[in-house]
Specification:
Blueprint lengths: L1 H18 L7 H33 L9 H29 L6 H25 L8 H14 L3 H26 L2 H5 L3 H74 L6 H24 L11 E3 L1 H12 L9 E5 L7 E3 L1 H19 L4 E10 L2 E8 L6 H4 L17 H11 L3 E7 L3 E9 L10
Parallel strand pairs: 2-4
Antiparallel strand pairs: 1-3, 4-5, 5-7, 6-7
Amino acid sequence: MSVLKDKKTWVDWWRLLQLFRSVAPDDGSQRSRIRFMERNTVLPVKAVYFLVLIAYLYFDQWPEMDADRIRWTLLRTIQWFFVLCLIVNVIVGVILIRMEEFSTRVLRELVFSICLFDALLLAMMTELTGGFESFLFWVFLGLQIRNSISMPIASTQIVANLSVSVIYLCAGVFDIVVARSEEELGAIAAEPVVLRALLLVLMTACGYGLQVLIDKQRRMEEEEEEFDRRQSQLQASGRLAAEIAHQVKNPLGIINNAAFAISQEDNQSESTKRQLSLIREEVSKADQIITKLMGYAQLVEGRLAKLDINETLDSSILKVFPKDSKFGTRIRREYGIALPPLLAQHEHISEIFVNIIQNAREVLESQGEIIVKSSYHGDYTFRVAIEDNGPGIPTDQLEWIFQPYHTTKEKGTGLGLAIVRHNTELYGGTVKIESKLGKYTRFNLIFPGRTTIRLQKE
C-alpha cells in the first residue's frame, strides 16, 4: 500500500508540474512574435534611443569628469562600446527587415544575442546615471517584458531575463565598489536595492507565467479547431464509406437472393445445390469483409474525445481478457504518466489495441506473458508497445503482416492487422513490428497528441 501511495503522490506532483510546462509555438507563431516586437516595435524605439544617446554621450558637457579619473575612463569606455552596439544593431536591423530570408532558429539566436548587447549598454548607462539609484532601472523591466514577448521558448526566455537581472546587479555593485566615494556610499539605503533586485526576479517569473498562460490558451484554440476539423473529416469519410458499402452490398444481396430462389426449385441436382450453397456462403463472407472494411460507415455517428491512452489500454485489455475469464496469460502493465491526450474516437483506438492483444492471446494459448507499455516519446507524442513472448513471426512474413487478407490462421480473415495500421495512420501515427522466432513479437505504435486526420485517396 505504501508503494502505491508513493506512486500516486509522485503522479500528482508530476501532473502539477505539467501545469507550468510551456510548449514552444510553431515557427510561424515565433516569427510573428519576433516581427511584431523586434521589427515593428523595438526598431523604431531604438532609432530614437540611439539618437538620444548620441546627443547625451558626444555633445553634452561633462565638466565633473575632469576631476574624476574613474568616471572619465568609464565615459570613454561607454562611448567606444556604444559605437560597437550601434554597428551591431544596424546589422541586426537589416536582418530583421529582411527576416523572411533567414530561418527561425537564426532569428531566435539573434534576438537572444541582441538582448544581451542591449542589457550591457543599458548597464553602462545605469552606471553613468547613478547606479542603483538610476531611473534606467525601469528600462530593465521593460527589457524583460520585451524578452517575454520576443522569446517564446521558456528556457531561452528565463536565461535572458535572469541575465538582464544579473547585469543590472553587476552594474550597481561596480558603482558601489569602484565609482563611489565613502560619503556617497553612506547615503545609499539597502532596502531599495533589495526591492529592485526582487522586482527583477519577480518580473522574470511573471514573464514565464504569462508565457504559460498564452501557451495554454493557444493550445486550447488549436484543439478546438482541430476537433471541428477532425469531426467534419470523419463525417465526410463516413458518408463516403456508407455510399460505397451501399453500392457494393446491393449487388451482393441480389446475387444471394437469386441463388436462394434457384436453390428452392425442385428439379435441381445435388451438384447444382452444392454450387448454389457455395455461392451463398462466399457472398456471406464477402458481405462480412465489406462490413469490416467499411467501418467508416459508422464514423458519422461517432464522436471525438480526448482519450487518456492508459485508460484506453485498460479497457481494451478488459475486452480481450474479461473478468472471471479462465485465460492463463499474464498481463504486465508499464504505463507512463502525464501523457498527452489523443484526440480521436475511442472505438478506433480501442480496435487497434484489441486486435493486437487478441492476436497475442491466441498465439500464447493461455500461456506466457503480454507486456503493455506506454511512454512519452517527445515532441508531444507518445509510444505504446505491446509485446508477447510467443513463438514469433518468420522474417519473410513481416513485410506482409499488415496487408489485407494476409493471415496465418485457419479461420482468420486477414483484416485485423490491416485495420491496426489503417486506424493508426488515420490519426497520423505509425506502427512497426519487431519479432524473433521463439522469443517475442513486439508492436511499436507512435501517436501524436494532436494531428490532422489523414484521409487516404484510393
